[in-house]
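Kindly inspect both lines:
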Amino acid sequence: MYKKMSKVYRKSELHTFCHAKHPYEPFNIAEAKTLIVGNTPPARFAKKELQEGDVDWYYGSRYNAFWNILQQSCECEQPLSTKEKRQNFFLENEIGIFDTIDECSRAKGCGASDGDLYNIVLIDVLTLLKQNKHKTLRLFFSGRFVAELFQKATMSKFDLRSREMQQIELDNKILELTILYSPSPSWARGLPEVIRKDPKKNEIRLDQYRHICKC
């Protein structure tokens, strides 16, 4: 079990809709050589009001391409289509996963974007990382906002603009950090126009995600 921090980020008395605690426990933290780090799933996952095509676990939204990207990048023989298959894939590849947000509220409409999240309480990331047995650990953040939350939770500093691997030392561990291109449909929105219009632009994202499977 992990602990949460007491400080509240983006505190707001106006944005108190869909307040919920994160529905999933961190997975395979102690043994993993690689950790996937996110923020929080859409509100319907905490409320257990899933839609057809959703999978009741991390990145389970039918609109989120995380598992499809990982499947392509890592050349999986079978689709990562169920919770069991996803967990087994992580165990086989020494990968763990957790989200930085323990609980939060949302703006009216209960959207899933980073800008909709308020009254954010973070988990105690440092305590969580201490459970890991490795001296060197690779972390892949699912976006810049996630990396920013990680910085707040750990008081660490690294370049939030870079998509290249960075290395820091934190609490007697060497952390190799990469900010992934988002698995959401709007992932390319911040890229230069010439790249956004390139029909092969997804290769940029696939190439980055391939490193998740390379230990």
